[in-house]
Specification:
The chain has about 100 residues and is mainly beta. The protein is about 10% helix and about 20% strand.
Length: about 100
Amino acid sequence: MVNITEYQKCSCGAITLYTNNGDAYSCKQKNLRKFFPNIDLRKIERLPESYCCNHCVNHFGLDLCGCGSGEEFGKCDEGYPECKQPMQVVGKYTRVCAADAWI
């Protein structure tokens, strides 16, 4: 179970949820219930609105393709091996890195 401590809305339409261990998970607000069905944002600290978040700038998101294109997962046609997985999975990883990535 992931312990969400705070969240932030972005002007792009995404919400980023922050955990007590420093992880951050993002998705479009319309997809929030898909990934966090039991979350009640009224009970979590809200941070000031953002105008550039990991979702829109870095293409890190639960609902985004693992290749980093920014396309929705499952709707990307780039054809990279990373396209077979979402960019983030709650409780498992916060970003996909290619095998030959510098990080």
